[in-house]
Amino acid sequence: MDLHLKEVKVDGDVAFEGKFLKLQSDTVRLPDGKTSNREYIRHPGAVVVLPLFVDGTVLLERQFRYPLDQVFIEFPAGKIDPNEDPLDCAQRELQEETGYTASDWEFVCTIHNAIAYSDEHLDIYLARGLTAGESKLDDGEFLETFKASVPDMLQWIREGKITDVKTVIGAFWLEKILAGQWKL
Hints:
20% of the residues lie in helices and 42% in strands. It has three helices and ten strands. Strands 7-4-9-8 form a four-stranded mixed β-sheet, with helices on both faces. The protein has a three-stranded antiparallel β-sheet with strand order 1-2-3, with no helix packed on it. Helix 2 packs across helix 3. Keywords: Hydrolase. Its cofactor is Mg(2+).
């Protein structure tokens, strides 16, 4: 299936290895038999948490993101550690970043946010039954949390105030879930 589109790795090497990301450079054989180069970022994967309160509001974060030199509004999220179960990671990240724990967790979907240049995937979870607690931010991590309604989030997306792709997709899922149009 789809063999007429498949590219096959012929050779490859790590072009750069940092503390978090790796840049892979591979030679591939194209469907027509020619070869080409593919450079992409190797990423361990991450989780995104949609923390939903009983009143229908959600918990969001404001965090500075260095590559784009600005503060972004986003859902809690974080990198999956080696051999860590994604749900365990989601539960850990929610508590570390926001102080909240949740009694009810549901898997929403997996997204691939940069398919042209990264193998990163994000597993999205809906968290309900939220209980406040103390956050435990990582060293060098600075953020603030706040509540918002899903309609407000959708308006901020329309206005360009929310542009983070995981948050945009999460908001669209929540809109469908809360309207009863999509079941988990």
